Amino acid sequence: MVDTMQAGNVGAAARALKNMGLSRLRLVNPPDLSEEECRFMAVSAYDIVTSAAVYSTFEQAVADQQILIGTTSSRGRRQRTPILSAREAAPMLLRYAEKQRVCLVFGPERSGLCEEHLALCQYLVTIPGSLELPTLNVAQAILILAYEIFTAEPAPEEVDTQIVSQQVREKMFEHMQETLVNIGFLSQSNPGHIMRSIRRFLGKADLTLRDVQILRGIMSQMDWYISDGKHLEADRVKKP
User: Fold this and answer.
1) Number of helices (H) and strands (E), helices first, in the chain?
2) d(Cα 120, Cα 1) in Å, to the nearest integer?
3) 88: number of Cβ within 10 Å
């Protein structure tokens, strides 16, 4: 849960998790969890609140995770990534969770996840509602997704490879941006414009460690050419 504003929603989310046999909760910049409202809404699931891992930033919270599934409202958003329903996402989530670390991400009550956080997610999921009031309370959304996970069967496809963590992905993207700026492919003043698209299609891939090593190897070769290759070429041209 990212930037949750109401302590009661954290308590209600903890109860929803425990109702459906889940127990791991990560909180980014949470409210005061000692508030009575949090205890009241959690009922007998307050132990999930007290054992929750707390982080100051979203990046810290998901650094060791391999698959991020962000929750979003499809209304008013221009997403290039297909948005799954909760029922579609649950079997896929269970399949990944057999061998990978999977994290369902929920944003703050008023705005949901920001575009920067959604861009880091490999999959997006939404819960459709009435046009009269399409958005759900965050704890209600957690309960619905937790229920779908509780009742679903894993998708039949198997994931045989180990997917890299979000931290490894981020280091790769940082290296890639630096190199692409240096060769002039990205604008130094605004590299994020194109990098968002690069992140979007590579971030959705099930990248293995070997995949990342190959991509970073390509960047390293470019780095070498920038620093040394041009000098060697210039020397060769000068020779009679």
Assistant:
1) 11, 6
2) 15
3) 16
- What tens digit of pLDDT does each residue of 57-75 get? 999 999 999 999 999 986 5
pLDDT tens digits, 203-221: 767 788 888 888 888 888 8
Q: Say how far apart CA 88 and CA 148 lie, in whole Å.
A: 9
DSSP 3-state assignment of 83? strand
CATH architecture observed for domain 166-238: Orthogonal Bundle (1.10)
pLDDT tops 60 at residue 80: no
Read off the tokens for 40. Answer: 């009241």
Residues paired with residue 27 on neighbouring β-strands, in sequence order: 54
The answer to whether residues 81 and 204 touch, using CB atoms and an 8 Å cutoff, is: yes
Every domain of the chain and the residues it spans: 7-151, 166-238
Residue type (1 letter), 65: Q
Residue 32 class from Cβ within 10 Å (0-12 exposed, 13-18 middle, 19+ buried)?
Answer: exposed
Report d(CA 167, CA 180) in Å as an integer: 20
Q: How confident is the model at residue 237 (pLDDT cuts 50, 70, 90)?
A: low
Q: Would you put residue 105 in left (φ > 0), alpha (ψ -120 to 50) or beta?
A: beta
Using the predicted structure, report yes or no on whether residue 10 has a pLDDT greater than 80. Answer: yes
pTM for the structure as a whole = 0.74
The count of other CB atoms within 10 Å of the CB of residue 56 is 9
| Domain 7-151 in this protein, CATH class | alpha beta
Helix axes 138-151, 7-19, angle to 10 degrees: 10
